Amino acid sequence: MITLDGNEAAARIAYALSDVCAIYPITPASPMGEWADAWSATDKPNLWGHAPTIVEMQSEGGAAGAIHGAIQAGALASTFTASQGLLLMIPNMYKIAGELSPLVIHVAARSLAAQALSIFGDHSDVMATRGTGFALLCSGSVQEVQDLALIAHAATLRGRLPVCHFFDGFRTSHEVAKIAHLDRDVMRAMIEDDWVRTHRARALSPDHPVLRGSSQNPDVYFQGRESVNPYYAAFPEIVQSLMQRFGELTGRRYGLFDYIGAEDAERVLIMMGSGSETAEETVGYLVREGEKIGLIKVRLYRPFSSAALVEALPDSVQRIAVLDRCKEPGADGEPLYKDVVTALAEQYGNGVLRQMPRVIGGRYGLSSKEFTPGMVKAVLDELNNEQPKNGFTIGIHDDVSFTSLDWNADFRTDAHTKAMQAVFYGLGSDGTVSANKNSIKIIGEQTSLHAQGYFVYDSKKSGAVTISHLRFGPDSIGSSYLIDDHAAQFVACHQPRFLGRYDMLAKAAPEAVFLLNTPLAPGQVWDALPGSVQQQLIDKRIRFYVIDGYGIAQQAGMGKRINTIMQTAFFAISGVLPQDEAIAAIKHAVEKTYGKKGQRIVEFNCRAIDMTLEGLHQIDVPEEALPAADIQDSRFDRASDFVRSFTAELIAGRGDAVSVSRMPADGSFPLGTAAFEKRNLALELPLWDEDLCTQCGKCPLVCPHGVIRSKLYPASLLEGAPEGFKSAAVKGKDLPQDHAVSYQIAPEDCTGCGLCVDICPIRDKSNASHKAINMVPAEQVHDQDKANWEFFLSLPEYDRARVKTKTIKGAMFMQPLFEFSGACEGCGETPYIKLATQLFGDRMLIANATGCSSIYGGNLPTTPYTTDPNGRGPAWSNSLFEDNAEFGLGMRIALDMRANYARLLLNELKAQLDAELVEQLLSADQTDEGGIALQRERILKLRAALVKIDQPQARELESVADNLLRKSVWIIGGDGWAYDIGYGGLDHVLASGANVNILVLDTEVYSNTGGQTSKATPLGAVAKFSAAGRPSMKKDLGMLAMAYENVYVAHVAYGAKDVQTLRAFLDAEAHPGPSLIIAYAPCIAHGVDMSNNHRQQQLAVDSGHWPLFRYEPLRAAAGKNPLHLDSSEPKVPYREFVKSETRFSMLWKTHPELAERYLQQAQQAVTARYRHYEQLAAISWEDSSSGQDTAGGDK
Amino acid sequence: MDLGTTFLGLKLANPLVPSASPLSRDLGMAKRLEDAGAAALVMYSLFEEEVRHDEEAAARFIHEQYTGFNEADDFFPVPDSYASIMDEYLEQLQALKQSLSIPVIASLNGVHDEGWIHYARELEQAGADALELNVYYVAGNIDESAAEVESRYVEMLYTVRQQVKLPVCMKLSPQFSSVGHFVKSLQAAGANGVTLFNRFYQPDIDLESREVSNTLTLSSSYESLLRIHWLALLYGRVQLDMSATGGFHRAEDCLKAIMAGASTVQLCSVLLQQGAEVLSTILQDMREWLEENEYETLDELRGSVSQQHAIDPAAYERLNYVELLHSHKNPAGIWR
Predict the structure, then answer these.
(1) I want to staple B319 with a disulfide (CB 3.0 to 4.6 A). Which of A47, A945, B154, B314 is the partner?
(2) Catalytic residue among A8, A34, A56, A60
(3) Which residues, in sequence order, are CB contacts of A999 under 8 Å at separation 6+?
């Protein structure tokens, strides 16, 4: 038996049975490619004794093309993907299937982006491939993923149809389970050498050449499509025979359609995927209760065998409910339902089926929506109705189309009577999930118990809340749903501040154990509990334990690492294993992880484990107590109805209960909602020293979360300030002297990253450690700052038209319209976006590529984008990952078109309007804030005038008049988009000459999906998919863009030279054509604490890794060299830069010689690149037509 | 001329030993040193902080990435195996042992006892001929007494001594109130030798940033006098081997160290400045001086001008200090 998740189970088989895997990252399938790459880096052999070649491509489309080529040239190939990635493979899938090429695509099935992107599981993606000709084989559990993966690889070789083997994203791909292991002997026995050799013999070869992939005409194309029918007709039988062979080899038997239930069942469910595990559990329970019901699990969905389906159904069946995990809007039923109806009708028509059952279809589980035994029962119960609902939904409350079935949330099966269920609330960063995975391994591997773990995260990157659901028991665990309310025998709260925020004891069963991590002494704990928690502890007679995890971690030398401590506490009081055995196993696991490489860490952990046992205290729960008052949540007091009724519910974790009518049908949401979250993450907060501060504006510039602000306001307004509000007389002679300045933080939104303090250049003359802003313990200033922040918000924003935008100090007086994002603490991307919103946010449209910036920018429940006091702000949208440049170009075209139409109408109505106003509107200079402000006033005047004109053109002009104000289009995304998947579009948009501003947030890796290599990844950097270091140089995107000559290009790093960054943003936006800002963004994927964000930017610039420059095409027109170099030649050895980041330095630990070689190459390359830029910048542009290069030019 | 000497029980062809420095990181350089006549080699130090940082970094960035959001559990592929700082050190030790025929002395540099025994055992198993313990401790805690500081050293030595059979040498700083008494304590705790003295790299202040920075300056011959002074005071009064280090650049410096009582003289700055081959020049110059002065063995020279054997023993004590002050005159032309 082994303990692993679905992705690893699939990857193990694919790796063993492939020569080539072409990969590309996409959640939740990325780990499959990561496993394959990691194994390949260690030369782990496949079944034929050699390591497969793993090649990362620029997109899933590229991956599909590469494996298509590989199989045509005789290799055994596979790939892994999900969702939009699978959609990008569709064109190739038609080709691959059309050519009868054996191949397996393993899919962690995921929702498709529709009204919104969603990374979670359903079958939308797989269903979109039904027409491709791929066989579709479905696994419902981790065990099945492993087993059917092998059957898929065998069947494709035997039957020549390519197979899409799929399983539910997250629920199965990420569920950790104990399964029976498949050894290589079974693989050998399933794959006949002949099949492989025949495949190789069909390969394209000049030794026996053929033409394949021809172009055909009306005369024969049709016949060609029909020529493959025998292969499809034979395939179900091939799969069935392989399933039989597999069953003989392993004892685990599968069928094309597996029936579970009563022999005399009258009501039957038909479904596929992980939901059928829950259905099996429920049907089994209800059959034992006497119900005549059953379940068909669909395994081979394409080719669909009507005969096999009907054969699997009991003759007694009268009513069938088919459950689809997808939505086909406008169809009269979802795909599986329609296939079943067609199959039954066909078999009834030809007499095989004696009676035609009543069939209904419904939808469940979209985007990993929970699917519970109560829901299964509700569907079965619906079949009892005289007129059962067709096209139903289960799992939501549909108060718009009334499709939904009600279900009993309290319904339980008997599946867990002998099992233990445990729920853990932790932070993403506190190691709770990792420790729980470890616990599952311990229990799975050291006992005969079955084990299952599933992990739920919130949508944040900083301070993400994780809920771990663990089950252990003597019987196999098929429950593919979360642990229910009142069902957990063990509940742990690893973060004390969660107590009042999440109703975690709702999960606790009567007499459960509750473990709380708290710094409070045992005697103080009870009184500090919220009343509702006390009440539940009493009502459920819960055994209550506390431990000071952080205190013990500190004492044991573990810093803030509490994972081992909390894991030990779980084993000590849960009773899942004898304590001594459990402790020995945890220590063994620690030893295994850190081994002799981390002897001290092992010692610290072991010390912590021993201290934990001493530090656990049981708290007496009184039989009756007067509950203390719960803390009132006042965050939404001033919120809109929508925020109160929708956003607030999502924030509270009650989103599942939101009914359909409360969802905006087109997926549009209000801005400014992140401000309601008030996550109070910071343990330390910055405190401004107003006397020392020179008001330089650097701290608000670098704050990744928009938490620290500077504001310039009339000093007279301070009269109403709360006591303790900080302000200073304005410094700078250009600023109004009757104004005051405040630098204020939002204490409830700060993450405590400390970067504001790091960047502060001012030190106290008598105390070098004291700056103009300093971190202090949060409790020291939190309440005061909360009051101060409220007052600060009430102060008016300074007039944008009067701000000196070209200075950091001036620009930072502009309101950021991007605040409090859930990005990682110290994120290197967000300051750039924030800056753009300060400068242009009130007239900005953003096209945002999928990636980190779309997740912290647009993942519900809230958005950091917000509005100014006039209600204006960035209009933001995300189309896809690959099409972002095109998406933004479309916006530009539409805006230009509407502006042109407005000008046309303005000319048509000229006679009825003030001629001077029309002239000014048409010729307005809108290149600065003053010009923008004047144009806004003119548009208001125009609107006032239009009201009085009773002509159709006036009504038309009213609808487009706002387009007379210049809009700023920003196309934002990461390097994965710009360098790889979206490069074709980006290139095209640059070439278009359109006035768009492209901001590439270059973290040099696919950050959002977990650090996979992109073409921005530097030489020698270790990343996922480059476990042995990236062997090639980073693409020089700036140089490619400069080749167009009409593109404004800037290479910036705000932490190294903030003024250059500011200048680049202003210039780029002012440039009348395409602009490209490539922004260096340190990321946690670099293996550096983000408190060093600025240092790393400086090192990147000083070492030559990230030269700063601006290329301004308009200068060329003026006879000047367009290229400015803004950084000096490399003055820090490249070694110093790379040795400071784990992404590079870890290569010295695994491949030292390679690391040294890459370093030498990189050092030469950065030096040569700088010289190249230097020469380009030195070319004289005065007489460019002569083509003479003369040194000492413009630079 | 017999330049042979015994240090830590190791029979050496001569007293010149390259001290712990980056030179031993390079096998080619180590070979050049041997060819130039080095009698033994002290490896670069395995720093406790480096090992600790290495472990912490591996824990923090590899084993405990804990990214903790939906789309990514971690960012780095976790390697099946990798070389820790300790692994690299052991590998280099073994490589040096293979390519050199002179003894190789491993060097451990740290202040805490956690893990030291483990490290020392591994170094012994990897074939080190002896172990230098460089306890680089800055007594910054003003509540810690001198006796407590000394006992920190003694306990650490004692613990290591109990666990390994290797000869152990303690490398000391000059900042002890009673160097002689302390060396006797170390001898009692099992030290086979002492190396006098470590050079502290002093923190500096950057006037621009007002940050404290670390600077590395190479030694000068002048610094050797402090070492010679203490060698002379201790020779004959303690029964362990003494090695001189810090400021030994020329044959003259080395001869003086031997005269004061050193078994070996450790060279570093001069090798970094002038290359490995300068060692052979120093050795040749020593040999010539000894021949000119009709010595037949180096042993005859050892301790000949120690305090016990000096013409004027008081010159090593306070009297010398007074005379020096009295003899001081302002340079001509400068009015003070």
Answers:
(1) B314
(2) A60
(3) A832, A833, A836, A970, A971, A972, A973, A1077, A1079
Which single residue is written with the structure tokens 């939308």?
A124
- Which residue of B55, B67, B79 is in closest CB contact with A598? B55
What does the pLDDT read at residue B336? 44
Asked if B29 and B40 count as a contact pair (C-beta separation under 8 A), the reply is no
CA dihedral A1086, A1091, A1092, A1098 (to 10 degrees): 110
CA distance A752 to A759: 14
Mean pLDDT of A842-853: 97
Q: Model confidence at A339, in pLDDT bands (50, 70, 90)?
A: very high
Distance in angstroms (rounded) separating the CA atoms of residues B233 and B197: 14
Q: What CA–CA distance (Å, rounded) separates A14 from A76?
A: 10
* pLDDT exceeds 70 at position B325: no
pLDDT of residue B326: 64
pLDDT score recorded for residue A1190: 39
DSSP 3-state of B48? helix
Cα angle at A1150 between A1144 and A1151, to 5 degrees? 80
ipTM of the complex: 0.86
> Taking a contact as any Cβ pair under 8 Å apart, which residues of chain B between 203 and 262 contact chain A?
210-211
The string of pLDDT tens digits covering residues A773-803 is 999 999 999 999 999 999 999 999 999 999 9
- Give this prediction's pTM: 0.94
- State how far the alpha carbon of B180 is from the alpha carbons of A201, A1052, B233, in Å: 85, 61, 8
Alpha-carbon distances of A986 from A63, A701, A1040, rounded to whole Å? 20, 28, 11
Contact between A430 and B66 using a beta-carbon 8 Å cutoff:
yes
Query: What are the tokens at A596?
Result: 């002799």
Does A1008 qualify as catalytic in the annotation?
A: yes
According to the 3-state scheme, what is the secondary structure of A398-467? Answer: CCCCCCEECCCCCCCCCCCCCCEEEEEEEEHHHCHHHHHHHHHHHHHHHCCCEEEEEEEECCCCCCCEEE
- The answer to whether residue B77 neighbours chain A at the CB level (below 8 Å) is yes
Rounded Cα–Cα distance for residues A891 and A882 (Å): 16
What digits encode the pLDDT tens for the residues A76-102?
999 999 999 999 999 999 999 999 999
| pLDDT digits 0-9 by tens, A143-159 | 999 999 999 999 999 99
| pLDDT at residue A624, as a whole number | 77
Distance CA A424, CA A608 (A): 20
Chain A contact probe: residue of B62, B66, B204 with most A CBs at under 10 A? B66
How far is A646 from B316, CA to CA, in rounded Å? Answer: 87
- Return the axis-axis angle of helices B224-234 and B179-188, rounded to nearest 10°: 60
Query: Hey, is the C-beta of A530 within 8 angstroms of any chain B C-beta?
Result: no
Cα distance between residue A353 and residue A364, in whole Å: 28
Distance from CA of B153 to the nearest CA of A (A): 20
Of A553, A425, A570, nearest to A500 (Cα)?
A: A425
Average confidence (pLDDT) over B132-159: 90
Considering only the beta carbons, identify the residue of A119, A597, A600 that sits closest to B70: A119
- At which residue do the structure tokens 């780029």 appear? A1068
- What whole-number distance in Å separates Cα of residue A152 and Cα of residue A145? 10
> For residue A236, what pLDDT is reported?
98
As a whole number, the mean pLDDT across chain A is 95
Contacts of B118 in chain A (CB under 8 A): 599
Q: Which parts of A280-406 are beta strand (E)?
A: 293-298, 300-302, 319-324, 358-364, 392-394, 404-405
Burial class (CB in 10 A: 0-12, 13-18, 19+), B289: middle
Q: Which of B27, B33, B35, B15 is nearest to B275 (CA)?
A: B33
Cβ atoms of residues A821 and A946 within 8 Å? no
Nearest Cα to Cα of residue A287 among A261, A269, A312, A263 = A261
Torsion of CA B320, B325, B329, B335, to 10 degrees: 160
